[in-house]
């Protein structure tokens, strides 16, 4: 009986240990399963695209290749068989040359290497994988696209299912970035906090030494601007790293590579500059491109969202400062009217308060300048119907009446 109880307790203990390990591993397995699912979806889609498009491409390029060779042969034969002294023959040469040039232009556009007169197939498996990834990330360079009806129908279905799936993966990568940032902050916050305080001091160095409430608004706005600028600098650094990688593989200048990275990470995807991944030896390069693009999209979207939030926060603070100025202008107008009407309030220095208000208003206008210089006391819109003003100056006084 004791042995059975001991065995049961041991089994329960082992089961608890296994459950705890699975609980710790489950998030990692979830991330890994999502990434592997995207890889499998992309590779299978690429195989289907190649099966649908490559046979038609082979047929088309072979026909164009034969046409180029035939036109070239006819043109050479016509020259050697004709009379050079005949004006009519020279006109025919011009026409034959024009026909040959048009054929060459079509062949070069379709993918014939005119130096070797050999076709260069775009729908290799490596190219198909890269094309599938450009669909899923909504970049769509446009340098390669399905031309068959079956290929276009499959492209629609592939994109409908794959794009939401890819966006989920990108969002998951963004969460991993956020987790890494949090971990770095926890580990190095003793270094980062003093650095942040120094930045705030630099931002507030133009404020007055008395530290009035106008200064806090200035610090907030300048802090938002600094945060947005730092975020953009991190984005520029990320794009620069990618640019240096692409200059190793491609015959691009650094600016061309940086331009490609920016157009890609913002999903603009003009297609005027694209990686050359033709050939089986470019498999590793294609994988580097895909990983960089996937990670870069998550990073870029995070940076853009951060900058957007900083802009929105700065605009909100500007609106609050505007409301404060308008409220103080209204109060100044009231005090001035009371002074002009010789209204005395016990315990209140109207002239002194009016001078203080004017100084505060001038300080606001001097600090935030543009957009705030149009305030006039007699032309106020500080109370709008349906609009809530978060910052309001309340004036309470006792009257002897």
Summarize the structure in words.
The chain has 401 residues and is mainly alpha-helical. The protein is 74% helix and 1% strand. Strands 1-2 form a two-stranded antiparallel sheet. A hairpin with a 4-residue loop joins strand 1 (112-113) and strand 2. The longest helix has 80 residues, at 2-81.
Write the layout of secondary structure elements.
Blueprint: H1 2-81, H2 87-110, E1 112-113, E2 118-119, H3 125-136, H4 149-203, H5 213-249, H6 254-265, H7 283-340, H8 350-368
Antiparallel strand pairs: 1-2
Helix pairs in contact: 1-2, 1-3, 1-4, 4-7, 5-6, 5-7, 7-8
Radius of gyration: 35 Å
Shape: flat
Tally of extended strands? Answer: 2
Oligomer: single chain
Helix vs. strand class: mainly alpha
Assign a percent range to the helix content. Answer: over 70%
Poorly predicted parts: 208-215, 370-401
End-to-end Cα distance:
96 Å
- Topology pattern, helix = H, strand = E: HHEEHHHHHH
Q: Per DSSP, what share of the residues sits in E-state strands of 2 or more residues?
A: under 5%
Physical arrangement of strands within the biggest beta sheet: 1-2
Mean pLDDT: 77
Q: Could you describe the largest sheet, including whether it forms a barrel?
A: 2 strands, antiparallel
Number of helical regions: 8
